[in-house]
From TrEMBL:
Main location: membrane
BP GO terms, sorted: peptide transport
Source organism of this protein record: Bacillus canaveralius
MF (Gene Ontology): ATP binding; ATP hydrolysis activity
Record GO cellular component, one term: plasma membrane
Protein name (database record): Peptide ABC transporter ATP-binding protein
Keyword Hydrolase among record annotations: no
Protein backbone atom coordinates (compact mmCIF):
# COMPACT_ATOMS: atom_id res chain seq x y z
CA UNK A 1 0.00 0.00 0.00
CA UNK A 2 1.46 3.32 -1.07
CA UNK A 3 1.47 6.10 1.50
CA UNK A 4 -0.20 9.39 0.45
CA UNK A 5 -1.71 7.71 -2.62
CA UNK A 6 -5.08 8.98 -3.78
CA UNK A 7 -6.25 5.48 -4.73
CA UNK A 8 -5.03 2.15 -3.39
CA UNK A 9 -6.41 -1.03 -4.93
CA UNK A 10 -5.49 -4.11 -2.88
CA UNK A 11 -6.11 -7.73 -3.84
CA UNK A 12 -9.08 -6.89 -6.08
CA UNK A 13 -10.98 -9.90 -7.42
CA UNK A 14 -14.04 -9.40 -9.62
CA UNK A 15 -15.61 -12.65 -10.77
CA UNK A 16 -18.59 -13.53 -12.96
CA UNK A 17 -20.53 -16.63 -11.92
CA UNK A 18 -21.63 -17.87 -15.34
CA UNK A 19 -23.22 -21.03 -13.94
CA UNK A 20 -22.67 -23.34 -10.94
CA UNK A 21 -19.26 -24.58 -12.12
CA UNK A 22 -18.12 -21.89 -14.55
CA UNK A 23 -16.51 -18.81 -13.01
CA UNK A 24 -14.91 -16.07 -15.12
CA UNK A 25 -12.07 -14.50 -13.12
CA UNK A 26 -12.11 -11.20 -15.02
CA UNK A 27 -9.97 -9.40 -12.40
CA UNK A 28 -7.97 -11.75 -10.22
CA UNK A 29 -5.84 -10.28 -7.45
CA UNK A 30 -4.94 -6.81 -8.73
CA UNK A 31 -2.92 -4.33 -6.63
CA UNK A 32 -1.95 -0.80 -7.64
CA UNK A 33 -1.96 2.80 -6.46
CA UNK A 34 -2.38 6.20 -8.08
CA UNK A 35 -0.93 9.40 -6.63
CA UNK A 36 -2.60 12.84 -6.79
CA UNK A 37 -2.03 14.55 -10.16
CA UNK A 38 -0.50 11.44 -11.77
CA UNK A 39 -1.50 9.77 -15.05
CA UNK A 40 -1.31 5.98 -14.81
CA UNK A 41 -2.00 3.89 -17.90
CA UNK A 42 -3.55 0.43 -17.77
CA UNK A 43 -2.62 -1.44 -20.95
CA UNK A 44 -3.52 -4.78 -22.49
CA UNK A 45 -5.38 -6.55 -25.27
CA UNK A 46 -9.17 -6.80 -25.31
CA UNK A 47 -10.27 -9.33 -22.71
CA UNK A 48 -7.36 -8.72 -20.34
CA UNK A 49 -9.57 -7.20 -17.61
CA UNK A 50 -8.86 -3.46 -17.99
CA UNK A 51 -12.44 -2.21 -18.27
CA UNK A 52 -13.72 -4.52 -15.50
CA UNK A 53 -11.00 -3.07 -13.23
CA UNK A 54 -12.28 0.47 -13.91
CA UNK A 55 -15.94 -0.55 -13.49
CA UNK A 56 -15.02 -2.24 -10.19
CA UNK A 57 -13.51 1.02 -8.89
CA UNK A 58 -16.77 2.80 -9.82
CA UNK A 59 -18.83 -0.15 -8.49
CA UNK A 60 -20.66 -0.37 -11.81
CA UNK A 61 -20.09 -4.08 -12.46
CA UNK A 62 -23.36 -5.64 -13.61
CA UNK A 63 -24.62 -9.04 -12.52
CA UNK A 64 -23.57 -11.84 -12.64
CA UNK A 65 -20.32 -9.96 -11.94
CA UNK A 66 -19.36 -9.27 -8.34
CA UNK A 67 -16.38 -7.95 -6.38
CA UNK A 68 -15.43 -11.11 -4.46
CA UNK A 69 -12.44 -9.82 -2.52
CA UNK A 70 -10.15 -6.89 -2.00
CA UNK A 71 -10.15 -3.23 -1.02
CA UNK A 72 -10.47 -0.06 -3.07
CA UNK A 73 -9.23 2.69 -0.77
CA UNK A 74 -10.00 6.19 -1.97
CA UNK A 75 -9.48 9.25 0.23
CA UNK A 76 -9.50 7.08 3.34
CA UNK A 77 -12.72 5.21 2.43
CA UNK A 78 -13.00 1.62 1.27
CA UNK A 79 -15.35 1.92 -1.71
CA UNK A 80 -16.11 -1.82 -1.65
CA UNK A 81 -17.88 -1.46 1.70
CA UNK A 82 -19.99 1.59 0.72
CA UNK A 83 -23.73 1.24 0.11
CA UNK A 84 -25.17 2.10 -3.32
CA UNK A 85 -26.41 5.41 -1.94
CA UNK A 86 -23.03 6.34 -0.44
CA UNK A 87 -21.25 5.29 -3.62
CA UNK A 88 -23.54 7.43 -5.78
CA UNK A 89 -22.24 10.54 -3.98
CA UNK A 90 -18.62 9.55 -4.72
CA UNK A 91 -19.39 8.75 -8.37
CA UNK A 92 -19.34 11.97 -10.39
CA UNK A 93 -18.25 14.25 -7.57
CA UNK A 94 -14.95 12.67 -6.44
CA UNK A 95 -14.34 10.17 -9.24
CA UNK A 96 -15.33 11.05 -12.81
CA UNK A 97 -15.46 8.60 -15.67
CA UNK A 98 -15.28 8.88 -19.45
CA UNK A 99 -16.55 5.84 -21.31
CA UNK A 100 -15.25 4.57 -24.63
CA UNK A 101 -18.51 5.05 -26.54
CA UNK A 102 -20.10 8.43 -25.75
CA UNK A 103 -23.25 7.63 -27.72
CA UNK A 104 -24.17 4.91 -25.23
CA UNK A 105 -22.95 6.85 -22.16
CA UNK A 106 -24.93 10.03 -22.89
CA UNK A 107 -28.71 9.89 -22.50
CA UNK A 108 -30.22 10.32 -25.99
CA UNK A 109 -33.50 11.86 -24.75
CA UNK A 110 -31.96 14.75 -22.75
CA UNK A 111 -30.05 17.74 -24.07
CA UNK A 112 -26.33 18.08 -23.33
CA UNK A 113 -27.15 21.06 -21.09
CA UNK A 114 -29.72 19.06 -19.15
CA UNK A 115 -27.17 16.32 -18.44
CA UNK A 116 -24.48 18.75 -17.22
CA UNK A 117 -26.96 20.80 -15.16
CA UNK A 118 -28.37 17.69 -13.46
CA UNK A 119 -24.86 16.61 -12.39
CA UNK A 120 -24.03 20.06 -10.99
CA UNK A 121 -27.31 20.45 -9.10
CA UNK A 122 -26.94 16.99 -7.60
CA UNK A 123 -23.30 17.08 -6.51
CA UNK A 124 -22.48 20.79 -6.23
CA UNK A 125 -25.86 21.94 -4.85
CA UNK A 126 -26.00 24.85 -7.31
CA UNK A 127 -29.22 26.60 -8.32
CA UNK A 128 -30.52 25.82 -11.81
CA UNK A 129 -29.31 29.20 -13.10
CA UNK A 130 -25.82 28.80 -11.58
CA UNK A 131 -25.58 25.25 -12.94
CA UNK A 132 -26.58 26.43 -16.42
CA UNK A 133 -23.95 29.20 -16.42
CA UNK A 134 -21.31 26.75 -15.17
CA UNK A 135 -22.38 24.29 -17.91
CA UNK A 136 -21.81 26.90 -20.64
CA UNK A 137 -18.41 27.70 -19.09
CA UNK A 138 -17.44 23.99 -19.02
CA UNK A 139 -18.40 23.51 -22.67
CA UNK A 140 -16.20 26.48 -23.55
CA UNK A 141 -13.32 25.00 -21.51
CA UNK A 142 -13.53 21.71 -23.45
CA UNK A 143 -13.51 23.53 -26.78
CA UNK A 144 -17.10 24.17 -27.90
CA UNK A 145 -17.16 27.41 -29.91
CA UNK A 146 -21.00 27.53 -29.74
CA UNK A 147 -21.35 26.61 -26.07
CA UNK A 148 -24.76 28.29 -25.54
CA UNK A 149 -26.30 26.54 -28.56
CA UNK A 150 -24.71 23.18 -27.65
CA UNK A 151 -26.44 23.28 -24.25
CA UNK A 152 -29.77 22.97 -26.13
CA UNK A 153 -28.63 20.17 -28.47
CA UNK A 154 -29.11 16.40 -28.15
CA UNK A 155 -26.26 13.86 -28.36
CA UNK A 156 -27.26 12.69 -31.87
CA UNK A 157 -26.78 16.25 -33.17
CA UNK A 158 -23.07 16.20 -32.29
CA UNK A 159 -20.15 14.48 -34.04
CA UNK A 160 -18.25 11.69 -32.25
CA UNK A 161 -15.44 14.01 -31.17
CA UNK A 162 -17.89 16.65 -29.88
CA UNK A 163 -19.86 14.00 -27.96
CA UNK A 164 -16.63 12.90 -26.31
CA UNK A 165 -15.87 16.54 -25.39
CA UNK A 166 -19.35 16.79 -23.84
CA UNK A 167 -18.61 13.61 -21.84
CA UNK A 168 -15.38 15.18 -20.60
CA UNK A 169 -17.27 18.35 -19.59
CA UNK A 170 -19.70 16.23 -17.54
CA UNK A 171 -16.87 14.14 -16.04
CA UNK A 172 -14.86 17.19 -14.86
CA UNK A 173 -17.91 19.31 -13.90
CA UNK A 174 -17.59 18.53 -10.17
CA UNK A 175 -13.78 18.82 -9.99
CA UNK A 176 -13.12 15.12 -9.34
CA UNK A 177 -9.82 14.12 -7.74
CA UNK A 178 -9.62 11.08 -10.03
CA UNK A 179 -10.71 10.75 -13.65
CA UNK A 180 -11.03 7.29 -15.18
CA UNK A 181 -10.77 7.41 -18.97
CA UNK A 182 -11.72 4.03 -20.46
CA UNK A 183 -10.45 3.92 -24.06
CA UNK A 184 -11.62 7.54 -24.50
CA UNK A 185 -10.65 7.75 -28.18
CA UNK A 186 -11.59 4.31 -29.54
CA UNK A 187 -14.47 5.41 -31.77
CA UNK A 188 -12.75 8.55 -33.07
CA UNK A 189 -10.51 9.21 -36.06
CA UNK A 190 -6.81 9.84 -35.51
CA UNK A 191 -6.74 13.67 -35.64
CA UNK A 192 -9.69 13.89 -33.21
CA UNK A 193 -8.03 11.29 -30.94
CA UNK A 194 -5.01 13.55 -30.50
CA UNK A 195 -7.24 16.57 -29.73
CA UNK A 196 -9.21 14.64 -27.08
CA UNK A 197 -6.05 13.30 -25.40
CA UNK A 198 -4.43 16.76 -25.40
CA UNK A 199 -7.63 18.11 -23.86
CA UNK A 200 -7.59 15.44 -21.13
CA UNK A 201 -3.97 16.26 -20.36
CA UNK A 202 -4.79 19.98 -20.21
CA UNK A 203 -7.77 19.33 -17.86
CA UNK A 204 -5.61 17.13 -15.64
CA UNK A 205 -3.08 19.96 -15.19
CA UNK A 206 -5.73 22.67 -14.83
CA UNK A 207 -7.74 20.83 -12.15
CA UNK A 208 -4.81 18.82 -10.66
CA UNK A 209 -6.62 15.53 -11.25
CA UNK A 210 -5.16 12.06 -11.21
CA UNK A 211 -6.01 10.08 -14.36
CA UNK A 212 -6.36 6.34 -14.84
CA UNK A 213 -6.01 5.97 -18.61
CA UNK A 214 -7.20 2.63 -19.98
CA UNK A 215 -5.95 1.90 -23.47
CA UNK A 216 -4.51 -0.73 -25.79
CA UNK A 217 -2.51 1.90 -27.67
CA UNK A 218 1.13 2.08 -26.55
CA UNK A 219 1.66 5.27 -28.57
CA UNK A 220 -0.89 7.00 -26.32
CA UNK A 221 0.90 5.62 -23.24
CA UNK A 222 4.29 6.96 -24.41
CA UNK A 223 2.83 10.42 -24.96
CA UNK A 224 0.56 10.94 -21.94
CA UNK A 225 1.30 8.58 -19.02
CA UNK A 226 3.72 8.84 -16.09
CA UNK A 227 3.51 5.19 -15.05
CA UNK A 228 2.15 2.14 -16.82
CA UNK A 229 0.66 -1.19 -15.74
CA UNK A 230 0.44 -4.01 -18.28
CA UNK A 231 -2.51 -6.35 -17.71
CA UNK A 232 -2.99 -9.89 -18.96
CA UNK A 233 -5.44 -12.60 -17.95
CA UNK A 234 -7.02 -10.51 -15.19
CA UNK A 235 -3.68 -9.75 -13.51
CA UNK A 236 -0.99 -7.09 -13.68
CA UNK A 237 2.10 -8.65 -15.28
CA UNK A 238 4.38 -5.61 -15.36
CA UNK A 239 4.42 -2.20 -13.71
CA UNK A 240 6.97 0.59 -14.05
CA UNK A 241 7.55 4.12 -15.35
CA UNK A 242 6.84 4.80 -19.01
CA UNK A 243 10.55 5.41 -19.77
CA UNK A 244 11.62 2.08 -18.23
CA UNK A 245 8.89 0.16 -20.02
CA UNK A 246 9.93 1.35 -23.46
CA UNK A 247 13.69 1.12 -22.75
CA UNK A 248 13.71 -2.23 -20.97
CA UNK A 249 10.48 -4.23 -21.03
CA UNK A 250 10.83 -7.32 -18.82
CA UNK A 251 7.73 -9.44 -19.31
CA UNK A 252 7.59 -11.49 -22.55
CA UNK A 253 4.03 -10.21 -23.11
CA UNK A 254 5.16 -6.57 -22.87
CA UNK A 255 8.06 -7.28 -25.24
CA UNK A 256 5.61 -8.87 -27.68
CA UNK A 257 3.34 -5.82 -27.58
CA UNK A 258 6.27 -3.46 -28.21
CA UNK A 259 7.64 -5.60 -31.06
CA UNK A 260 4.28 -5.36 -32.81
CA UNK A 261 4.66 -1.56 -33.09
CA UNK A 262 6.16 0.00 -36.23
CA UNK A 263 9.33 2.00 -35.50
CA UNK A 264 10.63 4.91 -37.58
CA UNK A 265 14.30 4.02 -37.00
CA UNK A 266 14.04 0.32 -37.98
CA UNK A 267 13.47 -1.15 -41.41
CA UNK A 268 11.70 -4.49 -41.03
CA UNK A 269 9.86 -6.66 -43.53
CA UNK A 270 7.38 -7.89 -40.99
CA UNK A 271 6.24 -6.64 -37.57
CA UNK A 272 6.34 -8.97 -34.58
CA UNK A 273 3.19 -10.66 -33.34
CA UNK A 274 2.14 -12.69 -30.31
CA UNK A 275 0.87 -16.12 -31.29
CA UNK A 276 -2.59 -17.21 -30.13
CA UNK A 277 -5.24 -15.15 -28.34
CA UNK A 278 -6.04 -14.05 -24.79
CA UNK A 279 -7.65 -17.06 -23.06
CA UNK A 280 -11.23 -16.57 -21.84
CA UNK A 281 -11.47 -15.60 -18.17
CA UNK A 282 -13.21 -18.90 -17.29
CA UNK A 283 -10.47 -21.03 -18.83
CA UNK A 284 -6.98 -19.73 -17.96
CA UNK A 285 -4.11 -22.22 -18.37
CA UNK A 286 -2.68 -23.81 -15.21
CA UNK A 287 0.35 -21.87 -13.98
CA UNK A 288 1.37 -18.65 -15.71
CA UNK A 289 -1.52 -17.27 -17.73
CA UNK A 290 0.75 -16.32 -20.61
CA UNK A 291 2.43 -19.76 -20.76
CA UNK A 292 0.49 -20.94 -23.86
CA UNK A 293 1.73 -17.96 -25.89
CA UNK A 294 5.18 -17.35 -24.37
CA UNK A 295 8.39 -17.92 -26.38
CA UNK A 296 10.39 -18.44 -23.12
CA UNK A 297 8.05 -20.94 -21.41
CA UNK A 298 9.69 -23.33 -18.89
CA UNK A 299 8.29 -26.39 -17.09
CA UNK A 300 7.62 -24.47 -13.88
CA UNK A 301 5.59 -21.87 -15.83
CA UNK A 302 2.97 -24.56 -16.49
CA UNK A 303 2.79 -25.58 -12.81
CA UNK A 304 2.30 -22.40 -10.76
CA UNK A 305 1.47 -18.77 -11.48
CA UNK A 306 4.45 -16.53 -10.59
CA UNK A 307 4.14 -13.66 -8.14
CA UNK A 308 4.80 -10.03 -9.03
CA UNK A 309 8.54 -9.58 -8.35
CA UNK A 310 10.37 -6.29 -7.87
CA UNK A 311 13.31 -6.58 -10.28
CA UNK A 312 14.49 -3.13 -9.16
CA UNK A 313 12.86 -0.28 -7.21
CA UNK A 314 9.70 0.79 -9.06
CA UNK A 315 9.78 -2.05 -11.63
CA UNK A 316 7.63 -5.11 -10.91
CA UNK A 317 7.17 -8.11 -13.17
CA UNK A 318 5.20 -11.40 -12.92
CA UNK A 319 7.64 -13.84 -14.57
CA UNK A 320 9.92 -16.69 -13.48
CA UNK A 321 12.73 -15.33 -15.70
CA UNK A 322 13.37 -12.75 -12.94
CA UNK A 323 12.85 -14.93 -9.88
Amino acid sequence: MAQNALLNVEGLKTYFDLDKKLIAKAVDGVDFSINPGETVALVGESGSGKSITSLSIMKLVNKPGKIKEGKILFGGKDLVSLSDKEMSTVRGSEIGMIFQEPMTALNPVFTIGNQIVETLIRHKKLTKKQAYQRGVELLRIVGFPRAEETMKEYPHQLSGGMRQRAMIAIAISCDPKLLIADEPTTALDVTIQAQILDLLDEMKKKFNMAVLLITHDLGVVAEYADRVMVMYGGQIVEETTVERLFEEPKHPYTSGLLESLPALDKDVDRLGSIKGTVPPAYNFPVGCRFSDRCPHVMDKCRQANPDLYATEPGHNVRCYLYE
